[in-house]
C-alpha cells in the first residue's frame, strides 16, 4: 500500500499536476487532478465550492452528496491513477486510502460536420467526429431503442484507448459479437490511435489486400448496418467506425443508392461495378492485345493504333507502366498536399504530363485515353480502402498480360477469385451470396430492389430476427416505387 505522500510522487514531476489540501470540521482531504485535462468550471463550481459549503459532512456523506453524475469510491491505486489520467478529480481521505473519483474531464473537439470521404448529395450530412461520446450520441439519436447494446473495452498498454462494440441484441447473431469481443480483448499493442489499427489486427486474414471490414464515417450507414445484423466498432479519437461482417458487394454499394428511385439506383450500381472491372482490366488488355493478339484488331481500327504508336520506342508494357506510375504519383501528390493546392497539382500535372508524354513519344494518344479512363473509373468505388485495392490490383494483371497475354489475364483472374473464395469476414464467407449461393440473398446485390422487396434481412447474416416488416400487410397498399 502506498503511503499518502508517496502515492502522488510519480505525478509531481508533471507541471500540470495540482495537489490541494482541504479541511473541514471533522476531516482532512487531499484533492488531486491534472489541470490540462480537467474542466475548471466543474472543479470550482461543483466540487470545491460544494466541499467548502458543506464542511460538516463526513467522508462517506460527502461522497453521497456531491452533485456529480459520474463518481465512484475506490482505494485501488491503479484504478485511481487510471481515472486521474482521463480527467477525473481525486478527493482522498487524509487518514486512509479511500478516494472519491469525480468525472470533471474536458470535452473538447471539433463539432459534427459533413462527411469528407463518403460525400453524398442526398441524405444525412452528419459524420462521426473524434469524440466517442458524441459518436454514440449520434447513433443513439438515430436508433432510440432499448435493444441497442454498447460494450466498452480498454485497449492499448500505453494509450488506454476506449473501444466500443455496438450491436442489436434482438437482431445480431451472438457469434459475431463474441468474435469481436474476443479478438479485441486479445489485442497486445501499446498504442491504439485509430480504428484502422484495430481493423488490421482483428481481420480474418491480415495479409490480404482486400478489406474484410467496412470503414465508414456516416452515422446513417452505421445505423443501417446495425439494423441488418452487423456489428459496429468505434474507438475514442477516431472519426471512423468499422462494420462487420461484410461481403465483397458491400464495397461497391453506396448508401446513397437507397435515397434514389430503385431503377436509377440499380443502374448507377451496375455502372459502378462495370467501371471497377474496366479499371482493373483495361490496361492489361491493351498490353495483351498489342503484344500477343494484334491479329485480333479490326482492320478499320488498326491504322489508328499504328499511327498512335509509330514513334513510341518502348514495348506496350513499359509504356503502360510509365503512364500508370505517373497517374499514381499525381494521385499521391494531390492527396498529400493541402486541398486547394492538391486539386491544382492534379489538374495541371495531368494535362502537362499527358501532353508532354505524347509529344515526346513516350506514350500513345490511345493509351493516354485508356489510362485516364481507368483512373476515373477507379474513383467510382464508394469505399476508400477498396479503391486502394483496385489501384494496386491493376499491376499484377498488367504483368501477367505481358507474360502470357489474354491467358495471363485469365490466370490472374483465377488467382484473385480463388483468394476471394478463401476469405472470410468474422467467419462469414466473403463472396456470399454468390458463393456459397444464397438465392434469397441476391435480392440486394447488383440490383437495388424496391423497399417492398426488402421485408427480410439477408439470410447470410443468420440474424435472430430475419423479418424486417410484415410484407402481407404492406401488400394491402402498394409502395410508390412499384
Automatic annotation (TrEMBL):
One of its GO terms (cellular component) is membrane. Pfam families: GerA. Keywords: Membrane, Transmembrane, Transmembrane helix. The keyword Transmembrane helix applies. GO terms for biological process: spore germination. The chain crosses the membrane at residues 273-292, 342-360, 366-385, 397-421. InterPro entries: Spore_Ger, UPF0353/GerABKA_families. The keyword Methyltransferase does not apply. Belongs to the GerABKA family. This is GerA spore germination protein. It comes from Paenibacillus taihuensis.
Amino acid at each position: 500500500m502506498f503511503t499518502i505522500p508517496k502515492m502522488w510522487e510519480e505525478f509531481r514531476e508533471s507541471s500540470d499536476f495540482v495537489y490541494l489540501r482541504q479541511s473541514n470540521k471533522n476531516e482532512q482531504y487531499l484533492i488531486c487532478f491534472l489541470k490540462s485535462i480537467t474542466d475548471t468550471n466543474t472543479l470550482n463550481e461543483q466540487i470545491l465550492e460544494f466541499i467548502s459549503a458543506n464542511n460538516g459532512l463526513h467522508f462517506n456523506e460527502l461522497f453521497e452528496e456531491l452533485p456529480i453524475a459520474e463518481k465512484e469510491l475506490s482505494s485501488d491505486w491503479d484504478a485511481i491513477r487510471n481515472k486521474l489520467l482521463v480527467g477525473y478529480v481525486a478527493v482522498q481521505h487524509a487518514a486512509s486510502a479511500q478516494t472519491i473519483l469525480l468525472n470533471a474531464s474536458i470535452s473538447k473537439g471539433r463539432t459534427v460536420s459533413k462527411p469528407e470521404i463518403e460525400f453524398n448529395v442526398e441524405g444525412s450530412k452528419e459524420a462521426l467526429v473524434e469524440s466517442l461520446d458524441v459518436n454514440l450520441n449520434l447513433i443513439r439519436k438515430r436508433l432510440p431503442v432499448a435493444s441497442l447494446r454498447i460494450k466498452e473495452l480498454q485497449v492499448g498498454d500505453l494509450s488506454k484507448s476506449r473501444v466500443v462494440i455496438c450491436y442489436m441484441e434482438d437482431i445480431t447473431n451472438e457469434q459475431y459479437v463474441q468474435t469481436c469481443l474476443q479478438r479485441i480483448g486479445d489485442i497486445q499493442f501499446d498504442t491504439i490511435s485509430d480504428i484502422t489499427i484495430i481493423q488490421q489486427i482483428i481481420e480474418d486474414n491480415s495479409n490480404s489486400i482486400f478489406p474484410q471490414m467496412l470503414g465508414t464515417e456516416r452515422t446513417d450507414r452505421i445505423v443501417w448496418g446495425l439494423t441488418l445484423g452487423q456489428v459496429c466498432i468505434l474507438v475514442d479519437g477516431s472519426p471512423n467506425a468499422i462494420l462487420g461482417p461484410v461481403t465483397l458487394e458491400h464495397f461497391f454499394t453506396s448508401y446513397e443508392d437507397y435515397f434514389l428511385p430503385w431503377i436509377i439506383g440499380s443502374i448507377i450500381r451496375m455502372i459502378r461495378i462495370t467501371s471497377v472491372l474496366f479499371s482493373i482490366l483495361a490496361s492489361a488488355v491493351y498490353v495483351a492485345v498489342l503484344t500477343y493478339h494484334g491479329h485480333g484488331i479490326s482492320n478499320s481500327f488498326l491504322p489508328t493504333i499504328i499511327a498512335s504508336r509509330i514513334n513510341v520506342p518502348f514495348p506496350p508494357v513499359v509504356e503502360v507502366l510509365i503512364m500508370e506510375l505517373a497517374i499514381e504519383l499525381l494521385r499521391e501528390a494531390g492527396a498529400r498536399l493541402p486541398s486547394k493546392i492538391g486539386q491544382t497539382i492534379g489538374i495541371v500535372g495531368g494535362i502537362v504530363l499527358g501532353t508532354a508524354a505524347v509529344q515526346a513519344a513516350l506514350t500513345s494518344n490511345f493509351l493516354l485515353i485508356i489510362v485516364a479512363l481507368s483512373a476515373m473509373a477507379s474513383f467510382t468505388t464508394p469505399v476508400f480502402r477498396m479503391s486502394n485495392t483496385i489501384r494496386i490490383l491493376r499491376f499484377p494483371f498488367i504483368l501477367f498480360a505481358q507474360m502470357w497475354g489474354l491467358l495471363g489475364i485469365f490466370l490472374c483472374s483465377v488467382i484473385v477469385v480463388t483468394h476471394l473464395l478463401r476469405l472470410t469476414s468474422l467467419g462469414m464467407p466473403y463472396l456470399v451470396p454468390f458463393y456459397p449461393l444464397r438465392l434469397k440473398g441476391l435480392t440486394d446485390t447488383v440490383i437495388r430492389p424496391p423497399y417492398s422487396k426488402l421485408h427480410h434481412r439477408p439470410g447470410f447474416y443468420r440474424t435472430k430476427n430475419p423479418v424486417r416488416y410484415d410484407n402481407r400487410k404492406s401488400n394491402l397498399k402498394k409502395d410508390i416505387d412499384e
